[in-house]
């Protein structure tokens, strides 16, 4: 499959001088495939949007001719909002979503740096460090630090550099008490290369490498949104809505929860809904679905998945009536498409509190809850959080 992808890429490149965007391509996957950063690809092609359109021409170096103006994309900016409608409207195809070739990790040599084996425990300045032994895209995880100096360790994820991710390689200080400190991490959807964790304590620097297990991607699901729903994708209020949410993702601070996370509804989410590759209208770009969708009757109470502060509660064009809770620690949860909101901005909620009722506002065809759990703004698999204090 991978070999076929490469062959296809090469053929497309040599025949036209520029690359023609295929079904499943994302700016991120193409940047990875060509050892470029997403921003390089944007600059080389004068892109004003991260959304690609099938058939669009791209170049990967300044010497390749730039194709005529790319079709302007008016598609959703990645977060996506509806379950496949019941019946035959959602037509899965066999196209593979987002092929991303592996790239070997090469790090510049750095004094005092140690590359540790995956899954091993190691120490820095007397602080014991535990990392997960393997991860998949969409995972949330924690770096666990134990020892007197644990709270003085600075943690970064340098593998995020070059990823299409918010605040890559941010310097993070651990949260905790009693000699056990944690830093949450996220594996962005689309990632296939190892996660690199860098720990700094005084002059000592240690790096850990966590391999990535491929996550079996389902087929691309092609939704055909009704015109009156699809037009919300280009609502003039969408940019302000996204800006509000993006600003709220920047919140950090200490975790405000003390008990395990819990599900928002008693029903189970639609299997495979988190991380699904989708299109919304015929020919629109393939995008990831960043939440888990729960089918439920309109009016079903929605419960806060943990303690937090209400940072957004209002009606917006694409997410509909939605609530965003800031749980501290860079962790937020979002509840879309509600029929009624029962909390206000600034309110403190407790785990299990009813924050609103299920509905079908925003980009939704039928009543459901779209739940997102994000780490520093990047979507993680919600189910991984339930019944645990940390993923
Ligand atoms: Zn959804």
UniProtKB/TrEMBL annotation:
Ranges annotated as biased composition (Low complexity): 65-77, 87-97
One annotated GO molecular function: metalloendopeptidase activity
Keyword annotations: Signal
InterPro entries linked: Cell_wall_metabolism_enzyme, Dup_hybrid_motif, LysM, LysM_dom_sf, M23ase_b-sheet_dom
Domain LysM: 17-60
Highest taxon of the lineage: Bacteria
Region entry Disordered, spans: 65-101
Signal peptide: 1-18
Protein name: Peptidase M23
Organism encoding this protein: Deinococcus irradiatisoli
